[in-house]
Amino acid sequence: MSGRQSAVTLYYHLLSQPSRALKIFMDVNKIKYIPKEVQLAQGEHLQPEFEAINPFKKVPVISHNNFILTESVAILRYLCREFDVADHWYPKDTLQQAKVDEFLEWQHIELRAPLAMYFRTKFLMPMVTGKPAKQESVDRMYKLMVIGCDKVENIWLKDKPYLCGNSISLADILGACEIEQPRMAGYDPAEGRPKIKEWMDRIKKDLDPHYADAHAYLNAVAKKNAARSSQVVSKL
């Protein structure tokens, strides 16, 4: 495992779901890294200095021995190969590994896309632009988000404690961080979905304190928005 000889440089921001997943994974597995928080609100990811690292102008990114990777799933797989981590994260057994890969490929479109777009449409863009969200767009993203969350509840977690079997894997870290995201926009996927609720509680226990640390900002935003919504309702 040559990776243990040098630290990884991690470019990230905790508003980013895969950034949180990657940071949690590295903290849990004690992978030495140099943290480089990219200030998204200040547009640091759009500057030439960062574009030279990642031409896609997104986080997360890693640099390791002058080798750069810009996509979170590829990064996680690379770290599992390069560093000494427990086999359950990304099993060497081809059948078990294929099940993890199955979720990693599925989640891009079926889970990440609708949850991220709901968050972006209802919360992020109104915050950035100062303009209210178009309700038609919010409703469309909401429907897709519900479909994705229901599939996690009724298919992926139908008969097992983790997304891909009886042990936690890369799928669970990525999936949990995606499930957390719309809470900042006032929607909690765990509400009314007991299997997701039990799974999320299990993940938090497995990964704490690193999970809680990575989600401190998200939890603060979600709490603030929930309080604001309660005040609005009380005035109606």
TrEMBL record:
Gene Ontology terms for molecular function: glutathione transferase activity
Catalysed reactions, semicolon-separated: RX + glutathione = an S-substituted glutathione + a halide anion + H(+)
Span of domain GST N-terminal: 6-87
UniProt KW keywords: Cytoplasm, Transferase
Cellular component GO terms, alphabetical: cytoplasm
One BP annotation, GO: glutathione metabolic process
Compartments it resides in: Cytoplasm
Domain (GST C-terminal) ranges: 93-236
Signal peptide (from-to): none
Matches recorded under SUPFAM superfamilies: GST C-terminal domain-like (SSF47616), Thioredoxin-like (SSF52833)
InterPro entries recorded: Glutathione-S-Trfase_C-like (IPR010987), Glutathione-S-Trfase_C_sf (IPR036282), Glutathione_S-Trfase (IPR040079), Glutathione_S-Trfase_N (IPR004045), GST_C (IPR004046), GST_C_Theta (IPR040077), GST_N_Theta (IPR040075), GST_Theta (IPR051369)
Family of the protein in this entry: Belongs to the GST superfamily. Theta family.
Subunit description: Homodimer.
Protein name, entry field: glutathione transferase
Gene behind the chain: gstt1
